[in-house]
Amino acid sequence: MSWIEGGFQRKLIATYLLVVLAIIAVIGTFLLASIDGPKVSRPTLFIGGLLAVAAAVVLGFIFARQVTRPILEMTTVADRIAKGDFSRKISTTSSDEVGQLGRALNLMAERLENRLAELEEERTKKAAILDSMVEGVVAVDGANRILFINASASRLLNVSSAAADGRPFLEVIRNNELLDLLDRTLQGGTRAQQELQIFTPVHRVLQVHASPLKSREQRSGAMLVLHDVTELRRLETVRTEFVANVSHELKTPLTSIRGYLETLLEGGLEDREHARPFLEVIHRHTERLGRLLDDLRDLSNIELGKVTFHRQPTILAEVVQHAMAIYEPQAAKQEIDLLAELPHDLPRVLADRDRLTQILINLMDNGLKFTPRGGRVTVTAKTVQGSRFKVQGSEPETQSLSEALEVVVQDTGVGIPSQDLPRITERFYRVDRARSRDLGGTGLGLAIVKHLVKAHGGELSIESELNKGTMVRFTLPIAPPDSHPA
Fold first, then answer.
1. Share of the chain above pLDDT 70, in %
2. 119 found inside a domain
3. DSSP H helical segments within 160-229, as ranges?
4. CA 464 to CA 363: how far, in whole Å?
């Protein structure tokens, strides 16, 4: 059997020889059978020839099987490798050419499997990196079919990455401006950028950079990188509006002050009957400028975290009475009822007493300004769940309270239109600018209240109805039971 399992060439030669011997045996049998002879009978010769042919066939089948079986096995394994199945290996162990070819195929399959695994790992890493990017990335081929879209781009453009692969760009992302930018990049082969707006799923401002994708021979597509600059543009707008509002708020009293001073310097000072009213107007405008600058400083310090809060257990009723004492003369003058309806069993709050007073003063001041004669401004409080209310139009709160004290300042004034409520806590935002300015408001009161409430870990809500009044709610954390009041 060792000879049978020998070299591939020997197997082929042996097979050929056996076939030749079988042919010779058959021919010889027929020749002997045709010769008359006394010693050998024809049946015997026929039987001998048949036995020789049978032996040649059996031995030829054995040698042929030794040749074809490994080749068939290699064909089967190669077909499975071509389909991506590397689990089966060629089992031949002979040292001939067929065995060498089998071992070479096994080694090739192993290296190919390892290489594919490395490529898959590399592809997974790159996909993970692209998916973790804040910027959106979209790659298309030369025919504007989507090759890749990462998670950020899917979120920004409201598309599914799985459903987008291989589909035309405009069929998935229905934005002609992006398509035009892609076409310019594909046709010109140069980088391009553009800032544009999209309105689905929400309004966003995107800064888009387009770059051509080049293969070794020619351009093969383009890639879009999407930067969401919505918040940046919003902040730029807020800054511009803030500068414009501050300039306007400063310009109005300064213009009045300058006009009255020029009148006094040009001889009005000698007219004592009119000089004093002029000086009183100048004094009111300087006071307004002082309030504006104080509010701006307070708001800036609060937003920058420069204000130190001394939170201590505080009795709310005492702070409310202190704030009301400041405004009782003004309320009496305007014939407005200023009331406090607080339960006697209210728990103490964990708050900065001075900042809490500032919150109440701002809210009472607004209530008295916009409530007509015969109206009412009421302060109430009760215990509620801390996560019940949210600030309209502001970011989520930084602290969630399981239980809190809710303070409500309600008036029966002119109210606020529903379309203005989401922006009412913005700096310098006024519903009626002329009236608010005439009443001496700076437009910063509610913005300061919002930041002070948030700094205490509380929540703010404003509800209003035209000609029926406004209700401002804010929550404060409850102090531990074993603490002592400040």
1. 77
2. no
3. 161-164, 169-172, 176-188
4. 14
Q: List the CATH number of the domain containing 357.
A: 3.30.565.10
Instruction: Give me 30's structure tokens.
Output: 């027929």
What letter would DSSP give residue 348? P
- Per-residue model confidence as pLDDT tens digits over 84-115: 777 777 776 666 677 777 788 888 888 888 88
DSSP for 266-293 reads: IIITT-HHHHHHHHHHHHHHHHHHHHHH
**Residue whose pair of structure tokens reads 């987008």 in the numeric block:** 164
C-alpha 454/C-alpha 443 separation (Å) is 19
Identity of the highest mean pLDDT range in 141-145, 212-216, 442-446: 141-145
Asked whether residue 208 is assigned to any structural domain, the reply reads yes
392 and 413 in a common domain: yes
Query: In b/e form, how buried is each residue of 362-401, taking b as 16+ CB within 10 angstroms?
Result: bbbbbbbbbbeeebbbbbbbeebebeebebeeeeebeeeb
216/347 same-domain check: no
Crossing angle of the two packed helices 230-263 and 272-303, in degrees rounded to 10: 160
Of 206, 228, 250, the domain-final residue = 228
Strands (E), 218-264: 219-228
Counted domains in the chain? 4
Please tell me the total number of residues recorded for the chain in this structure: 486
End-of-domain residue from the set 195, 228, 261: 228
**Co-location of 180 and 55 in the same domain:** no
Is residue 212 one of the residues assigned to a domain? yes
Residue 380 shares a structural domain with residue 349: yes
| Cα 298 from Cα 62, distance rounded (Å) | 101
Q: What is the pLDDT of residue 393?
A: 38
In a domain? residue 234 = no
**Residue 453 contacts by C-beta under 8 Å, 6 or more apart in sequence?**
359, 391, 459, 460, 474, 475, 476
Spell out where 184-248 has E strands. 192-198, 204-214, 219-228
Mean pLDDT of 198-205: 84
pLDDT digits (tens, 9 = 90+) for 27-55: 666 665 565 555 555 566 567 666 766 76
Residue appearing with tokens 């409080």: 381
